[in-house]
Design goal:
Layout lengths: L2 E5 L2 E3 L14 E2 L1 E5 L2 E6 L12 E4 L4 E4 L1 E6 L1 H7 L3 E2 L6 H14 L6 E6 L11 H5 L7 E5 L4 E4 L1 H7 L11 E5 L5 E7 H14 L2 H17 L2 E9 L1 H13 L7 E7 L6 H16 L6 E9 L27 H13 L3 E6 L2 H18 L7 E4 L7 H8 L2 E4 L9 H8 L10 H7 L3 E3 L10 H10 L19 H8 L1 H5 L18 E4 L3 H4 L9 E6 L2 E5 L2
Parallel strand pairs: 1-6, 2-7, 8-15, 9-10, 10-11, 15-16, 16-17, 17-18, 18-19, 19-20, 20-21
Antiparallel strand pairs: 1-4, 2-3, 4-5, 7-22, 11-12, 12-14, 13-14, 22-23, 23-24
């Protein structure tokens, strides 16, 4: 194996100095890589004492750190989103309509248009209608996923393509929004989006399209300094696309992928448990740490922006939403998955949903007894004050996404709650203080995938999307070293990989990145300017900036 010495560097190891090991230091100056593994970490003065390497790389004083693990992504979906009409920063209906017209003009032979990223407060009254899209593009179907991917906005041709009429029933856990006359308005909420619009998308998407999306996503993540991801919505289509990508790379993806199998509430215990059995089958067959199924994903509720997250108390308009997985249907699934040794990741944005998630986990522990387990709750945008301590006691990871708290998209979130709950939005320090493992990700494509921008929001609570917007809840901002630790060391630990990757220490995987700026020296604002100079996975350079 080839040995490489990286020297003349500022090395952030993400290793807790309180761990007590000889090499447990937060900072170093040189790293020796032996093949795919880190062999030595230390000071420049100690380099003469180690065996001469096959090659030496002088980093010129740049920052070397562990590669990011994005603890919550939708990999193939993100790759597809990169080729769709981007509405992230479209702040008004005319802006949205103009982008749709431009997309139509740019692709005159297109059979349909897909877009993503629109915000409820960019639409008059927060009430999207098919007619609003038809004003811009009415001659072919248009499908627009909301920024949180829990709603799909379609035009009249889109409703026709989906076969939605006034008589189409709402699916379990979702709603086809209707106008005063009872006709579909053009907005599909929760499972109405996934089971109708997304099912249509899956039927018309080719394997070639999925393969291109997978490659696009992997390349984008490597350029962003991400060396591993936790995919939160694997299904037969997406898993097959990633397996084909692995085959194209000789059986080893350029990035490490651990996935959770999506289990949908079909309203029948037998059908739900059959999905768990399929996940267990796939997990048992996962022999490679490059691509593996490790657990299941359950979407317990919706989102606060659309008033579909399950809350203990009503929204500002007096409405509330029930859970997609009521406790009596959720518990058998959680107990079975826990018994099978699967990691359980539960989407819970509202406080009632996180209560239900923890109730089900407590029942699984009671039924299945003591055993090693590391389950997760995803998002936790608003949870009750006692939730962090309860999670810590149960050993449940808080998987959270700093970019979801970006002030540029916060106004509608706050307006939907409209009370003192707004002051406890995304309170990451509460989970740290309680002793719960906190893992950071982006939830791309519901938010930008850029890891450094994610860290900017985490360390400032300011906006990476619009610097003109003032910071919100700066008391919840984290120091850089803690934010980076949650996005590297802790994100790897959240899926059981904390003993072999996510830190720069002897024996750990050589998953490393080099930055052209040092935010520890230049301050958090430099995170928006810094670029990844090189991404190294298992000792091999997978991306190098031009």
């Amino acid at each position: 194996m080839t040995t490489t010495l990286y020297t003349n560097a500022r090395v952030f190891t993400a290793t807790d100095a309180a761990a007590g090991a000889v090499d447990a230091r937060t900072w170093a100056e040189a790293v020796l890589v032996d093949g795919s593994t880190i062999a030595w970490v230390g000071a420049a003065a100690d380099v003469p004492s180690i065996p001469a390497p096959d090659r030496t790389v002088d980093l010129g004083g740049r920052l070397l750190m562990p590669g990011f693990t994005d603890a919550h992504v939708h990999l193939v979906m993100m790759g597809a989103a990169l080729a769709q009409v981007n509405l992230d920063d479209a702040r008004t209906l005319p802006e949205i309509q103009e982008r749709l017209r431009s997309a139509r003009d740019a692709a005159p032979d297109a059979e349909r248009i897909w877009g993503r990223g629109w915000l409820f407060d960019a639409v008059p009254g927060g009430r999207p209608t098919a007619a609003m899209i038809d004003e811009a593009v009415g001659d072919l179907p248009v499908f627009l996923d909301a920024n949180d991917y829990h709603s799909c906005w379609v035009n009249a041709a889109g409703l026709e393509a989906l076969g939605i009429t006034r008589d189409t029933p709402d699916p379990l856990g979702g709603e086809i929004v209707r106008d005063a006359a009872g006709d579909a308005s053009g907005l599909l909420l929760e499972t109405a989006a996934t089971e109708i619009a997304w099912a249509y998308r899956d039927r018309i998407t080719s394997d070639d399209d999925r393969d291109a999306a997978a490659d696009r996503a992997i390349d984008s993540y490597l350029a962003a300094g991400v060396t591993g991801v936790v995919d939160m919505m694997l299904d037969e289509h997406n898993l097959a696309a990633l397996q084909r990508a692995s085959a194209r790379h000789g059986g080893e993806l350029p990035i490490r992928v651990a996935g959770h199998w999506l289990v949908e509430n079909r309203g029948d215990d037998a059908a739900n448990l059959a999905q768990v059995a399929r996940a267990a089958e796939l997990a048992a067959a996962s022999a490679s740490h490059w691509l593996r199924v490790i657990g299941i994903k359950l979407v317990l509720d919706g989102v606060i922006d659309a008033c579909t997250a399950a809350m203990r108390h009503p929204y500002s308009d007096g409405s509330n939403a029930g859970p997609i997985w009521p406790l009596e249907q959720l518990t058998p699934v959680v107990v079975a998955a826990d018994a099978a040794g699967l990691q359980i990741a539960q989407h819970a944005i509202g406080d009632r949903a996180s209560d239900i998630a923890l109730d089900a986990l407590e029942r699984a522990i009671e039924v299945n007894g003591d055993r090693p387990r590391r389950h997760r709750i995803e998002h936790l945008e608003y949870a009750a004050p006692e939730t962090p301590a309860r999670m810590a006691r149960l050993g449940v990871t808080a998987s959270m996404q700093p970019v979801h708290s970006d002030p540029a998209i916060f106004a509608n979130w706050a307006a939907m709650l409209g009370d003192e709950r707004v002051e406890r939005a995304f309170p990451w320090p509460e989970y740290e203080g309680a002793g719960a493992l906190l893992a950071f990700g982006t939830d791309a494509p519901t938010a930008p995938y850029a890891a450094l921008a994610n860290m900017y929001v985490a360390t400032t609570r300011a906006s990476a999307l619009d610097p003109r917007v003032p910071a919100t809840h700066p008391q919840f901002a984290l120091p850089i070293e803690r934010a980076l630790g949650h996005a590297t060391r802790d994100a790897a630990a959240s899926i059981g990989d904390g003993s072999w990757r996510g830190r720069i220490a002897p024996g750990f995987a050589a998953d490393l990145i080099v930055l052209d700026r040092d935010p520890f020296v230049d301050g958090p604002a430099s995170l928006l300017e810094a670029r990844v100079a090189e991404t190294i996975v298992a000792g091999e350079s997978r991306y190098r900036a031009e």
